[in-house]
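Protocol step 4 of 5: obtain the predicted structure for the target chain.
Materials: sequence only (see below). No template structures provided, no constraints applied. The aim of this step is simply to have a reference model before the mutagenesis design in step 5. Sequence pasted as it appears in the construct record:
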Amino acid sequence: MKTVFITGCSSGFGLEIARHFLARDWQVVATMRTPRADVLPRSEHLRVLTLDVTDAESIEKAVDAAGPIDVLVNNAGFGAASPAEVTPLDTVRELFETNTFGTIAVTQAVIPQFRERKTGVIINVTSSVTLKAVPLIAAYRASKAAAGAFTESMALELEQFGIRACLVLPGRAPETRFGERARSRMHGFDHEAYVDFAQKVFAGMRDTSSPTTRAQDVAEAVWRAATDPSSPMHIPAGADAEAWALGR
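Step 4 output (structure tokens):
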């Protein structure tokens, strides 16, 4: 029985990914900053571990406790919205610490066991906004684009060891708590230079007639990446992400 190690499983995409693999009889190591086993189905194939991807000691403990891993899913991340001019640098650093450096750090912790066994899959969940410029999320987009660039180059280094690395790119997911958390880190929208522009952008974002992404779409894309050796490096997840990937 194979084991998948997933970061950021307390809600949203990570939670749905964990449920998806559990339903298919995988061993699931679901990690969270604050463990909550009650959000997942009871199963003898489930372990819930504490993991803060910004803390080196926490990463080491979680990876050691997990034992042999077959698939790593780096899903932990958060968003923030702000005009680039007035985005606090502390927010920029926080975005990169989690979305970029956290992904890199967990990946580095798992690669040695993959390399030793000459097998393994690394799936990094980034965002479809890396495919198309979107205003008011410059720092968030940059943090996800950096994780994507890291993954693309790393994949070329690791294929000699039988290790695959790929990217899952979700679209806009109003059903998750991601947007709620991003709004809690909004800055600068009362700035006189950006008020009118921001209102127009947010009006478009609230348009429910346009395609969006479900958590299930992301889980299915991750499953494909984990189980299909012929899957591409970039896998859009959700109708809107697929449209962006096609340039529509």
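Step 4 remarks: Residues 89-117 form the longest helix (29 residues). Helices lie at 12-22, 56-66, 89-117, 138-158, 178-183, 195-205, 215-227, 239-245.
Proceed to step 5.
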